[in-house]
Amino acid sequence: MILTMDIGNTNIKTALFEGMETVEYWRVSTNRSMSSDEYGILLLNLFAHKGIRAEQVEGIMISSVVPQINFTIEHMCRTYFNMEPRIIGPGVKTGINIKYENPRELGSDRIANAVAAYELYGGPCITIDFGTATSFGAISARGEFLGGAICPGLKLAAEALTERAAKLPRFELAKPESVIGKNTVTNMQAGIVYGYIGQINYLVERMKRELGAPNAKVIATGGLAVLVAEESSAIDVMDGLLTLKGLCLIHRKNAM
Q1: What is the distance between the alpha carbons of residues 240 and 65, in angstroms, rounded to a whole number?
Q2: How confident is the model at residue 188 (pLDDT cuts 50, 70, 90)?
Q3: Mean pLDDT throughout 10-19?
Q4: Residue of 109, 129, 236, 239 marked catalytic
Q5: Strand 237-238 relative to strand 217-221: parallel, antiparallel, unpaired?
Q6: What is the side-by-side order of every strand in the sheet holding 133-139?
């Protein structure tokens, strides 16, 4: 089995794959103060709960947007799985031609999303990853990552609103029945959620025009994708494991 780990600012998403079939999936908090031993014991306990042994892992592929935690996770892999993990970076084959001005600036999770979207759904396509930040990626019909856009995630936008406006209360990030709210909380929910949906729809429409591909498939992933996908006409496919599938595909390319 292949162990994949997508280290994000808020959560670490991890999954085990047998071929391209998902065996198990877990999500744990990203905690910069945890030691390699704490992460190792946490993972082994998750494995044990499902009757899986560390010895069954044949390879580890990681993407990370939190450089401060990389050494800890790498050390954990060596200690608890007795193997060197692969981390997306220079020298790792992806099969994607990156047309970024500086490819080193591109987040490894966005590379994994592009690989999975192109190989599983075809190109041209657009990826949207709803995380702490929401990132868009545009992939050409020839499998080139052309660029994209990044904006604050839903939670980040909601937190900024309540922290910077003293009289506005904290609120649940939920979709109100109407965009015309009748109280402060529903006003805020409508502005954040429906405003965000409008932003998504416009950015996708604009990217399709610039790609010259009105039928480009749009694939969404990330924890908050469901909240937007129900209302957005721009999203064609929901794939919650897109990044991890991309990591599995990249591992296969580098294991050959």
Answers
A1: 18
A2: confident
A3: 94
A4: 109
A5: parallel
A6: 97-98, 144-152, 133-139, 125-130, 217-221, 237-238
Cα separation, 51 vs 57, in Å, equals: 13
Q: Within a 10 A sphere around the Cβ of 239, how many other Cβ atoms?
A: 19
d(CA 112, CA 250): 8
Average pLDDT along the chain: 92
**pLDDT at residue 131, rounded to an integer:** 87
- φ and ψ at residue 188, rounded to 5 degrees: -70, -40
Residue 6 designated active-site = no
Per DSSP (E only), the strands in 75-132 are 86-87, 97-98, 125-130
Name all domains of the chain by residue range, CATH numbers in brackets.
2-87 (3.30.420.40), 97-246 (3.30.420.40)
Report the alpha-carbon distance of residue 201 to residue 179 in Å, rounded. Answer: 16
Whole-angstrom Cα distance, residue 42 to residue 28? 9
Q: How many CA atoms lie within 13 A of 217 on its CB side?
A: 16
Judge whether 169 and 162 are in contact, CB under 8 Å. yes
pLDDT in tens, 58-103: 999 999 999 999 999 999 999 999 999 999 988 889 989 999 888 8
User: Residue type for 135, please?
Assistant: S
pTM of the model: 0.91
